[in-house]
Design goal:
Structural class: alpha+beta
CATH class of the largest domain: Mainly Beta
Bound molecules: zinc ion
Helix content: 25-40%
CATH superfamily of the largest domain: tricorn interacting facor f3 domain
Radius of gyration: 22 Å
Largest sheet: 7 strands, mixed
Strand order of the largest sheet: 4-7-2-1-10-13-12
Strand content: 25-35%
Oligomer: single chain
Number of helices: 11
CATH topology of the largest domain: Immunoglobulin-like
Length: 432
């Protein structure tokens, strides 16, 4: 294995390292959150937050207790017309509701937090950014199949910048501070919400109706443009493959910290990443991987984390499909060879297993299954169906489930319908 392949492998493996510790269980939620409206004041020096949240949700009228995810947040107060009582039990906030005819509820929650994960502070650089674990900075429903709209007002010292899910609808002066108001009008799962605060060099590239925004505290404007030069081509490629236009008015990429994480309408990429891209301009897997999640992940979301491969293998595979389109077949084949070698290694060590998990547990080997075996399996499926049928199927699947939750069966049926084929044997061999 050559040096460049090794380096490539190491970079590819850096993707979404933040998911290292997540262990999620499949759960059918009875709770349907419609909207979160959060006002948050982060204190970077103290690494703390004060939050006040309004949640609108529906539950069956037979339900008189709900359970929300609240990690280590300290709850001051829970109020609302139907609230009787609340208690915090471990990471859950349990709220008793009055028995009533109505199914629509609105409750307000005031809380304090010192997040150890989910919101990462850098006091030296006066920055902070969220990463995946939303319940560490906002009381929420973690279930990936519960989609809701999201508004966030961030109270910041004057002059500080914010980038968050949705669109910036205004900045209000509040004495020495400013309230940055963001609103996301369409529904996504709570793990996709996020924000970044700090002082950054910023540059914008308008592509049709979409503003591509790039931020860094280390690069200048020209370097930022060079770093993210492929973004518009990647966005157009995914629009074409999915058959669905990018839904937001903007997509922001922020170079910050050590993580690679997609959120709704933005992604954070590690501060160290430009070194690799400037050395080899085809080394853009992480840019394309996180952007792919704006379709496969954020808008077409695994129903529970047992079907996580539908988020991650798709992002990995789509990033290689873009590389093929942009840099040629050889680049694509070298990616596939890496995915295959990871799969072969799993087989050799007796750790190969189905892509679908009864109960998802995140560890390196399981991630290698859902990310890289998954991407390799999509490659094999394309070989089996042929290019035209494969992409027709991917587009049919993407259009059918855009804005919805999906299971592996949904994907199988969509591919079968679109390509008029029987994939029982393929899915039995490679996926289940
Ligand atoms: Zn990912």
């Amino acid at each position: 294995m050559g040096l460049s392949t090794l380096k490539n492998k190491k970079l590819i493996l850096a993707i979404c390292a933040c998911l290292l510790a997540i262990t999620a269980h499949s759960q059918e939620t009875e709770l349907d959150v419609l909207s979160y409206e959060l006002t948050i004041e982060p204190n970077i020096q103290n690494q703390s937050i004060e939050g006040s949240l309004l949640i609108k949700f529906e539950v069956a009228d037979s339900i008189n207790e709900i359970s929300l995810d609240a990690s280590t947040l300290e709850i001051y107060k829970v109020s609302g017309a139907s609230v009787i009582y609340h208690k915090k039990v471990d990471s859950k906030l349990l709220v008793d509701l009055t028995p009533q005819e109505q199914t629509l509820h609105e409750i307000a929650i005031h809380y304090h937090g010192n997040p150890e994960r989910g919101l990462l502070f850098n006091a030296d650089k006066n920055q902070a950014h969220t990463v995946f674990f939303t319940d560490h900075w906002m009381v929420s429903n973690n279930a990936p199949n519960d989609r809701a709209t999201f508004s966030i007002n961030i109270l910041l010292p004057k002059g500080m910048q914010s980038i968050a899910s949705g669109e910036l609808v205004g900045i209000e002066e509040k004495g020495e501070k400013e309230l940055h108001k963001w609103h996301q009008s369409y529904e996504t799962p709570s793990y996709t919400y996020g924000f970044v605060i700090g002082s950054f060099t910023e540059t914008t590239e308008p592509i049709g109706e979409v503003n591509l925004n790039y931020y860094s505290s280390e690069l200048d404007e020209n370097e930022l443009k060079e770093m993210f030069i492929e973004t518009s081509a990647i966005l157009e490629f995914f629009e074409q493959k999915s058959g669905i236009e990018y839904v937001q008015d903007s997509y922001s990429q922020i170079l910050i910290g050590d993580n690679y994480q997609e959120m709704s309408g933005l992604s954070v990429l590690a501060d160290s990443y430009p070194t690799f891209v400037f050395r080899d301009s085809s080394e853009i897997h992480l840019i394309s991987h996180e952007l792919a999640h704006q379709w496969w992940g954020n808008m077409i979301t695994c129903k529970d984390f047992g079907h996580f491969w539908l988020n991650e293998a798709f992002a990995v595979y789509m990033s290689s499909a873009f590389s093929e389109h942009r840099f040629g077949k050889e680049k694509y084949q070298s990616d596939i060879a890496i995915y295959k070698s990871i799969y072969d290694d799993l087989v050799e060590r007796g750790l190969d297993r189905p892509l679908v998990f009864e109960e998802w547990r995140s560890n390196r080997d399981n991630r290698n299954v859902v990310y890289y075996k998954g991407a390799y399996v999509l490659h094999i499926l394309r070989e089996e169906l042929g290019d035209e049928a494969f992409w027709k199927g991917i587009q049919y699947y993407s259009k059918s489930y855009f804005g919805k939750s999906v299971t592996t069966d949904d994907f199988k049926l969509a591919m079968e319908e679109a390509t008029n084929s029987d994939l029982d044997a393929f899915f039995e061999t490679w996926i289940y």
